[in-house]
Amino acid sequence: MTQLTVQLNRLQLANPILVASGTFGYAREMAAYVDFARLGGIIPKTITAEPRRGNPPPRTVETPSGMLNSIGLDNDGIDYFIETHIPYLTSLGTSVIANIAGRNVDEFVQMASRLGEMEGLAALELNISCPNVSGGVDFGTNPEMAADVVSSVRGACDLPIIAKLTPNVTSIVTIAQAAADAGADAVSLINTFLGMAIDWRRRRPILGNKLGGLSGPAIKPLALRCVYQVAQSVEVPIIGVGGIGTIDDVMEFLVAGASAVQIGTANFYNPSVSERLVDELPTALSELRVTSISEIELSE
Ligand code: SIN
Question: Lower Cβ count inside 10 Å, N or C end of the chain?
Fold first, then answer.
């Protein structure tokens, strides 16, 4: 019998296929396409302490093998999330991991302590890596700041904590180590790469915010490299994210050292892909002659 459950320190998931924050709305939008109860979990769009309008349009642009976004954490704020989205999300029969971003440590702590009181949430993902808002990546580019926010949230809330890290750093291993030492149950590797697109005829950037985060197939090799490097050096469960759209992509991340994965940009062009990947997982495991995710490892 194949065993699909995965254990990420205090967080247990029914299987390793999650959907990434910002690519699945607050799940209602995807109800026609996915049987939510089949997924390992849902990570809704990042919420902030106050509602945010986000960045000026255009906020997305397609590139040859990826997507640039400069959404700017557009969301209705934590009060609306608690009143409107949590009751629905926690009724779906899957793990719900709330993703939060604070402008400072206090905001992270206040949001975490409120969400820690909610029935039915499985974990918190700390977005310390958004490249599209001022200060968004600061916590994720400095090991002391990353450690401070993780340990402060851990002190304020009993939920398992996942730190979502940025690849826009010199050494992601250093940041992952700091998050792990501060008490993160897992790290999500990686958020988007800072990029841009230019309309040369108009001689200006296409995105309203000029720069944006690149996701999709273009970043898969870069994300795999980050997962591999962290897995080699840091004792912390890793959730791989970046350009995953097929079962081969999933298996590559698991072999590189991830314990679970998030499906992101692929949700936009194939909204049911996450459920299909859950279906395909047992056959891929049997090809490797393993019966559980934890048995998957790199061959030396
Ligand atoms: C955004 O809202 O700008 C994207 C979220 C992120 O990259 O963390």
Answer: C
Distance 248 CA to ligand 1 centre (A): 26
SS3 240: strand
Is residue 174 over pLDDT 90? yes
d(CA 203, CA 16): 44
Ligand 1 centroid to 186 CA: how many Å?
A: 20
Q: What is the CA radius of gyration of the chain?
A: 18
Peptide bond into 282 cis (omega under 30): no
d(Cα 43, Cα 63) in Å, to the nearest integer?
A: 25
**Beta-carbon neighbour count of residue 193 at 10 Å?**
20
Alpha-carbon distance of 268 to 246, in angstroms, equals 14
Homologous superfamily (CATH) of 6-54+73-199+216-295 is Aldolase class I (3.20.20.70)
Statement: residue 1 has pLDDT above 90:
no
Task: State the Cα–Cα distance between residues 68 and 290, nearest whole angstrom.
Answer: 37
31-86 pLDDT, tens digit each = 999 999 999 999 999 999 999 999 999 999 999 999 999 999 999 999 999 999 99
Please state the atom number of ligand 1 nearest to the C-alpha of residue 133. Answer: 3
Pocket of ligand 1 (CB under 6 A): 22, 46, 69, 71-73, 127, 129-132, 191-192, 213
Token representation of residue 3 = 């065993």
Structure confidence at residue 275 (pLDDT): 98
Whether residue 130 lies in the annotated active site: yes
